């Protein structure tokens, strides 16, 4: 949706009109981001200490991630309806799909009845899946996306037998115009337009092209206003980073008691330190035994994941450090370009889920050059679970939630010069310092970013929404 203007009478007036609106939009963007970052500096410290907070009261008043608390077992079981954009199949799915799979398998294993309305990520026709307490209904349209009307028809049938205790949607998988008709509905936001505007701004600053992204920036503000208006169609809001939670309260003006932070978690049994597996992975992909530092990046090899940034930075690094290697896991247009950097870059293609842990274990440091300061990238968490430090941009969602201490790795401003400086620092520290940082990472993520902690927090959230007794913390059964 873009702003509508009257047709200008002259090309000169058209130019100045566009220039004025563009400058005005950029001023608003810079001002809002400055105020946002300033506010984060004021609230970040008490929320993200490594120790657990001493909290006693109503969980709806918690201003920190629920993952920091320790919830006890419950005998009460829930019936939950879930709307998810896709369900992961193979190695291609992104973080939102893998998050959904991990969370709902965990909740089903706890005895809760979970009904997921979705489509397979490969967009192929598949039969519904019913495994114990987990029920998957594939409701696709002709394009392979979720057919909301069909999904809602199936939902109503399942609800008619025994009513759902709560409805949960991953972002806008349940559109706001449908959410209005549901009484008990919560949404988990994996990215919001306020953060997307930040992404577009960073990509424009990095780009040498003139006028390409400026048009998108010009249209971003109306999209933001539209999003702020429809967010109230959802009853409760779950954010996967505290920075997003701050935005929903301070910018989107949602009630504090309707905004909650539950961080993503990954299967702690799948991503574990394994030095032998890492050594075999290096050997299999031609990394010499005398490599001084092995870096790695994983995900889709596309522009907004920061690959133009990494390509330019590492092309400078490899000229000065011939014993430094880069492993590139993923598929996309930038894969072919990385091969031009020579034998120090190993392009691995998309890895199967079972190979990911081996990949992380083969590294000395994991690099995430993303230009998308939104959500919470699972690759950072997975790498830290295998005992690896990370090197990543200093976005609010990352430095306020994941890399909360310099002992966990390195951060940089999303530009080539700052990126190179961070890479040089990691190389200068060497493998011994990187190992020490990796141990600190492992200790931290085990306390915060596990599938068990995530599922426990979501379980307590839905119980709290059903019965206010569960909103009190601690209960006698809590640890």
Automatic annotation (TrEMBL):
Keywords: Membrane, Transmembrane, Transmembrane helix. CDD domains: GT4_PimA-like. Pfam families: Glyco_trans_1_4 (PF13692), Glyco_transf_4 (PF13439). InterPro entries: Glyco_trans_4-like_N. The chain crosses the membrane at residues 20-40. Residues 93-268 form the Glycosyltransferase subfamily 4-like N-terminal domain. The keyword DNA-binding does not apply. The keyword rRNA processing does not apply. Gene3D superfamilies: Glycogen Phosphorylase B. PANTHER family: GLYCOSYLTRANSFERASE. This is Glycosyltransferase subfamily 4-like N-terminal domain-containing protein.
């Amino acid at each position: 949706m873009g702003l509508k203007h009257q047709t200008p009478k002259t090309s000169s007036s058209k130019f100045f009109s566009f220039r004025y609106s563009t400058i005005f939009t950029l001023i608003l963007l810079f001002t809002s981001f400055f105020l946002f970052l300033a506010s984060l500096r004021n609230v970040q410290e008490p929320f993200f200490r490594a120790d657990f907070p001493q909290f006693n009261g109503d969980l709806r008043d918690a201003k920190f991630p629920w993952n920091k608390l320790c919830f006890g077992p419950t005998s009460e079981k829930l019936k939950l309806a879930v709307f998810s954009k896709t369900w992961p199949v193979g190695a291609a799915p992104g973080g939102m799909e893998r998050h959904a799979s991990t969370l709902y398998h965990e909740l089903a294993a706890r005895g809760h009845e979970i009904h997921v309305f979705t489509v397979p990520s490969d967009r192929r026709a598949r039969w519904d899946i019913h495994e114990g307490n987990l029920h998957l209904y594939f409701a696709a349209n002709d394009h392979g996306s979720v057919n909301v009307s069909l999904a809602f028809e199936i939902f109503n049938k399942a609800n008619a037998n025994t009513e759902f205790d709560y409805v949960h949607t991953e972002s806008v998988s349940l559109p706001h115009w449908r959410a209005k008709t549901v009484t008990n509905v919560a949404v988990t936001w994996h990215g919001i337009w306020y953060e997307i505007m930040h992404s577009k701004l960073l990509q424009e600053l990095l780009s040498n092209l003139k006028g390409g992204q400026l048009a998108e920036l010009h249209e971003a503000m109306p999209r933001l206003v539209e999003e702020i208006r429809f967010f109230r169609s959802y009853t409760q809001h779950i954010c996967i980073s505290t920075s997003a939670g701050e935005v929903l309260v301070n910018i989107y003006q949602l009630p504090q008691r309707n905004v909650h932070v539950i961080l993503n978690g990954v299967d702690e049994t799948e991503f574990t330190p394994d030095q032998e597996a890492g050594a075999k992975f290096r050997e299999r992909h031609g990394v010499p035994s005398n490599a001084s530092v092995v870096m790695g990046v994983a995900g889709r090899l596309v522009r907004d994941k920061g690959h133009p940034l990494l390509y330019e930075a590492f092309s400078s690094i490899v000229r000065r450090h011939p014993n430094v290697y880069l492993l590139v896991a993923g598929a996309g247009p930038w894969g072919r370009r990385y091969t031009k950097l020579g034998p120090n870059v190993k392009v691995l293609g998309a890895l199967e889920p079972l190979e990911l842990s081996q990949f992380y274990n083969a590294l000395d440091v994991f690099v995430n050059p993303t230009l998308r300061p939104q959500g919470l990238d699972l690759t950072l968490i997975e790498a830290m679970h295998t005992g690896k430090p990370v090197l990543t941009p200093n976005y609010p969602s990352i430095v306020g939630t994941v890399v909360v201490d310099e002992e966990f790795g390195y951060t940089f401003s999303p530009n080539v010069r700052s990126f190179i400086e961070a890479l040089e620092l990691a190389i200068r520290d060497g493998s011994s310092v990187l190992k020490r940082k990796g141990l600190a990472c492992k200790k931290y993520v085990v306390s915060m970013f596990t599938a068990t902690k995530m599922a426990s927090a979501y379980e307590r959230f839905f119980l709290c929404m059903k019965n206010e007794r569960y909103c009190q913390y601690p209960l006698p059964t809590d640890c």
